[in-house]
Amino acid sequence: MNYFLKVWLTTLLVSPFIIFISLSIIDNNNWLDIEQTGPLAFLFILAGIIFSLPSIGLFYLLGRKLQQHNINNKSIKITLSIYAVISIFVTFSLLGDAFTTVYNKDFVFPLSYSIIMAISIFLFNLNFNDHKTSYINKNE
After folding, report:
1. Nearest C-alpha neighbor of 114 from the set 6, 29, 3, 19
2. Quick one: 81 exposed, middle or buried, by C-beta within 10 A (0-12, 13-18, 19+)?
3. Can you tell me where the transmembrane regions are (predicted)?
4. Nearest alpha-carbon partner for 19 in 122, 82, 84, 88
5. What is the pLDDT of residues 47-57, one digit of tens each?
6. How far apart are CA 54 and CA 60, in angstroms?
C-alpha cells in the first residue's frame, strides 16, 4: 500500500478513538460506550475523509517534490509532519466551531489528528516507487 495512503488511513481511523478516550478522561464521561460512539466514530471518519482531501493531496505532492530533490527521508518526514500539523489546525479553523464547540474542547480534535498523523509519518517506511526500491535507508 502507498505510504501516503497508509498515513492518511491510519490518521482517519485511529484519531476518532483517541478523541473519545481524551474526552472520557477530560469529561469523566462514558465516551467509550460503543453504542454511543460507534455512529459518531463513523461520522468523524466520513467527515475526515471529506475535509482532509485537499490537505492530503498537497501532502502527497509535497512528499513527491521533496523526494525528487534527493532530500533524505528523515528530513522529508520532518517536513511532512510540520506540514501535517499546520494543515490539520488550518482545516479545523476553517471549519469554525463545527466540531470543537460542541464539546467545548478546542484543541482535543486537531491535536489528536496531528499526533496520530505525525506518529504515522514516522512509523511507516517511506517508499516512493511502489515496492520497487525502498528509500528508507537513504541518509536516515
Report:
1. 19
2. middle
3. 7-26, 38-63, 75-95, 107-128
4. 88
5. 889 989 999 99
6. 10
3-state class (DSSP) for residue 47: helix
Gap between the terminal Cα atoms of the chain: 22
Q: Is 135 helix (H, G, I), strand (E, B) or coil?
A: coil
- The verdict on pTM exceeding 0.85 is no
Give the whole-angstrom CA distance, residue 36 versus residue 46: 17
Contact (CB, 8 A) for 116 and 44: no
- Ordered by start, the domain boundaries in the chain are 3-123
Task: Provide the angle, in degrees to the nearest 10, between the axes of the packed helices 73-95 and 34-68.
Answer: 130
